[in-house]
């Protein structure tokens, strides 16, 4: 409806809403992980599949043998490219407004950032997506509405008692990417799927 004035509601039909046509200048995309679903056996519709996407054991591996964050979200960078390509149909410039990982120990974040940006670059350069910007979630550890201060998404660690702030190692990786406005060659090794759960 926001680009063509056509509102389609599953099971109800289609309605024309010319007042909604061309009411958006750009599309914001938030991407953290994939959502794997299957047909529900109990009711019409779909249900999530445990062990993939947002339904994994925290700080472990998904059923696809991929690392999971401290909140149990599977790390699936290929989904970034898919999400961007799905939004191309609206014909508007895009901006990634949220993309990050809960990782207090900072063992996954450098790889998460580089691998997701690598997929974003593929969407732009190979698939022709018009993406104007990327915002990492988040700069500092913050209050997550549903989880409080427990998940640590920040590039910068925040001591909640003293309010002291300390950059995590991944902050320097992100700094290098931002300062060069590119993925530096020496970081491209992180675009590959690593065995990042091996002991340091």
Your description of this structure?
By secondary structure, this protein is an alpha/beta fold. The chain has one domain: Glycosidases (TIM Barrel). Helix content is 20%, strand content 16%. It has three helices and nine strands. The strands form four sheets. Strands 3-6-7 form a three-stranded parallel sheet, covered by helices on one side. Strands 1-2 form a two-stranded antiparallel sheet. Strand 4 and strand 5 (46-48) form a beta hairpin.
Based on the model shown, name its key terms.
three-stranded parallel beta sheet, alpha/beta, 200 residues, 9 strands, two-stranded antiparallel ribbon, TIM Barrel, 3 helices
Question: What is the topology?
Answer:
Layout: E1 6-9, E2 13-16, E3 27-30, E4 37-39, E5 46-48, H1 78-87, E6 94-98, H2 109-125, E7 131-134, E8 156-158, E9 165-167, H3 169-180
Parallel strand pairs: 3-6, 6-7
Antiparallel strand pairs: 1-2, 4-5, 8-9
Helix pairs in contact: 1-2, 2-3
């Amino acid at each position: 409806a926001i680009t063509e004035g056509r509102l389609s509601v599953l099971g109800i039909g289609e309605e024309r809403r010319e007042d909604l046509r061309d009411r958006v200048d750009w599309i914001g995309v938030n991407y953290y992980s994939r959502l794997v679903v299957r047909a529900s056996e109990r009711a019409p519709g779909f249900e999530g599949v445990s062990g993939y996407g947002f339904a994994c054991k925290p700080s472990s591996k998904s059923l696809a043998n991929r690392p999971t964050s401290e909140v149990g979200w599977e790390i699936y960078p290929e989904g970034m490219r898919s999400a961007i390509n799905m939004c191309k149909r609206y014909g508007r410039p895009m901006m990634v407004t949220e993309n990050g990982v809960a990782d207090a120990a900072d063992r996954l974040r450098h790889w998460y950032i580089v691998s997701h940006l690598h997929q974003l670059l593929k969407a732009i350069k190979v698939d022709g997506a018009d993406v104007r910007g990327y915002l990492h979630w988040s700069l500092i550890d913050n209050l997550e509405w549903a989880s409080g201060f427990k998940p640590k998404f920040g590039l910068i660690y925040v001591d909640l008692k003293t309010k002291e702030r300390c950059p995590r190692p991944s902050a320097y990786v992100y700094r290098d990417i931002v300062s060069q406005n590119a993925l530096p060659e020496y970081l491209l090794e992180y675009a590959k799927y690593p065995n990042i759960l091996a002991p340091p």
